[in-house]
Automatic annotation (TrEMBL):
Gene Ontology MF terms in the entry: ubiquitin protein ligase activity; zinc ion binding
Classification via Gene3D superfamilies: 1.20.120.1750, Zinc/RING finger domain, C3HC4 (zinc finger) (3.30.40.10)
Reaction equations catalysed: [E2 ubiquitin-conjugating enzyme]-S-ubiquitinyl-L-cysteine + [acceptor protein]-L-lysine = [E2 ubiquitin-conjugating enzyme]-L-cysteine + [acceptor protein]-N(6)-ubiquitinyl-L-lysine
EC code: 2.3.2.31
Keywords (A to Z) from UniProt: Coiled coil, Metal-binding, Repeat, Transferase, Ubl conjugation pathway, Zinc, Zinc-finger
Protein name stated in the entry: RBR-type E3 ubiquitin transferase
UniProt-annotated stretches for the region Disordered: 100-128
Coiled-coil regions, chain positions: 452-494
Length: 500
């Protein structure tokens, strides 16, 4: 698909495919933009894409040994020989590629082709030189000083970019190896300091000898092209190289066909509705920074608020019942569950201190931490509940098995419990991502928290029922599922409009 775009552009503008590729990469594969900018001012486009040097002329002449004054005659007698290596010699370069002297297509393609095919066009002529014109021999036997390794070598060992900066091929190769080692590929620049002209792919591939490095380079450039394409994404799944395409680049859920990883198509992180891409990044960064502070929350056990016996959470449900004293309480806030079940569910809402603006800096910092921990704890709890889901499913399977053995229905009669568990996971996932949203949100907070609380209450109900259901409860359970899913979609519709 990338190659198709390259070919199309290359024929349309009559430019080489490699140039077309660089230009497309630069404009995030916006063919129309390339064509328009190219036709308006090709030179500008090439400079901004860093294919050509910005300065109209005056490339700093590379250190060069004194050459006989006849050198200027070389070009005059051999105007056809494209001699990009000695392009920096005044006069010699006049016919090919001093930046700024000409901006038309042919000069660009001829300069790029002369770079790639350089080794062949410029063979030393050797002993036969006596029969050909002396001036040509003088041209090809000319030597040059490489400013990097500071050795004098024959000019045909040198390669120059369109900026006319010329270095010996060993130094170029070394430069490429180092850059590729750092993961740089399409952005490898000229070795001259303060010159940001990019090295054409052809030159890199010509000068790299080790096949492993060439492979690496090609992988990296390909990855760069994919990353620059707005409609393409690499699957973020571990060890998955699948490329996923979508013409709609909104923050919607994408699922990899190979490894089933689900992610946000726009930003590539785990799918995060109703939180948007910037906020989720901010939140995840904050969590990473504050991981120390939040670590103490990670406990799997808490004490029963009534009899103080240690209780382990081993399922998703926040409605806990102490095995010792049968007290019903909320895992999150340790409050009496009665207040959660029947009355207005407030466990998810953070109550800010209304006078906090007048408190000391110290108190404000404490309050800020308290607020963060409130949201973090709920975010983390849903995430953990989801991880415990496999255990919940295993327990459910065992329980159903027992029931079926006792003749209490068939497996088909119990199938709806698995559907309920799937829905539960979906709702928990959405709920998890409501907490970063609520943490940062400023307007419409009341409505959001209301809907969030409703969804929390519904799924706690559902969760409790799923773990204790009998066949006769099927109708009630399905009703509960219906309500939970409606709450979920309403919340998303109101606060995350891209997800219909
Ligand atoms: Zn060198
Ligand atoms: Zn340069
Ligand atoms: Zn994948
Ligand atoms: Zn996103
Ligand atoms: Zn207890
Ligand atoms: Zn609570």
């Amino acid at each position: 698909m990338l190659n198709e775009s390259v070919e199309k552009l290359s024929t349309q503008l009559q430019i080489t495919p490699s140039l077309a590729k660089v230009l497309l990469h630069e404009t995030r594969w916006n063919t129309a933009e390339v064509i328009e900018r190219y036709r308006n001012n090709a030179s500008n486009l090439l400079v901004s894409a860093r294919i050509k040097a910005a300065a109209p002329s005056v490339p700093p002449p590379p250190a060069q040994l004194p050459v006989p004054s006849t050198s200027s005659a070389v070009v005059v007698t051999n105007p056809g020989a494209t001699c990009s290596f000695i392009a920096s010699v005044p006069g010699c370069s006049a016919s090919s590629a001093i930046p700024g002297t000409s901006s038309n297509t042919s000069s660009i393609s001829s300069s790029s082709s002369s770079i790639s095919g350089s080794g062949k066009t410029h063979q030393p002529i050797g002993s036969t030189s006596t029969t050909t014109t002396v001036t040509v021999a003088a041209c090809c036997y000319r030597t040059q000083l490489c400013p990097v390794c500071v050795t004098v070598q024959s000019t045909d060992k040198f390669h120059a970019l369109s900026c006319q900066h010329s270095f010996c091929r060993d130094c170029w190769a070394m430069h490429f190896e180092i850059q590729i080692g750092q993961g740089i590929s399409t952005q490898i620049e000229c070795m001259e300091q303060r010159c940001d002209v990019r090295v054409p792919e052809d030159l890199v591939l010509t000068l790299l000898n080790r096949p492993m490095l060439r492979d690496k380079y090609q992988q990296f450039t390909f990855a760069d092209y994919v990353k620059s394409h707005p409609e393409l994404r690499f699957c973020p799944g571990p060890n998955c190289q699948t490329i996923i395409r979508s013409q709609d680049i909104s923050p919607k859920k994408a699922v990899c066909r190979m490894c089933k990883t689900a992610f946000c198509f726009r930003c590539g992180t785990d799918y995060h509705a109703p939180t948007d891409c910037q906020i989720i990044r901010k939140w995840l960064t904050k969590c990473a920074d504050d991981s120390e502070t939040a670590n103490y929350i990670s406990a799997h056990t808490k004490d029963c608020p009534k009899c103080h016996i240690c209780i382990e959470k081993n399922g998703g449900c926040n409605h806990m019942q102490c095995f010792n004293c049968k007290h019903d309480f909320c895992w999150m806030c340790l409050g009496d569950w009665k207040a959660h079940g029947s009355e207005y569910y407030e466990c998810s809402r953070y109550k800010e201190n209304p006078n906090i603006a007048h408190e000391s800096v110290h108190a404000q910092a404490r309050e800020a931490l308290k607020k963060y921990l409130h949201y973090y704890e709920r975010w983390e709890n849903h995430s953990k509940s989801l991880q415990l889901e496999q255990q919940t499913l295993d327990r459910m399977r065992t329980r159903i098995n027992e029931k079926v053995m006792k003749g209490l229905g068939t497996w088909i009669d119990w199938q709806h419990l698995f559907d309920a568990a799937t829905l539960l996971a979906k709702c928990r996932y959405t709920l998890q991502y409501t907490y970063p949203y609520a943490y940062y949100m400023e307007s419409r907070k009341e409505l959001f928290e209301y809907q969030q609380a409703q969804l929390e209450a519904e799924i706690e109900n559902l969760s409790w029922k799923v773990e204790r259901a009998e066949t006769t409860d099927r109708g009630e359970l399905e009703n509960q599922m219906d309500i939970a899913e409606k709450r979920r979609t309403t919340l998303l519709k109101d606060f995350f409009p891209t997800e219909a």
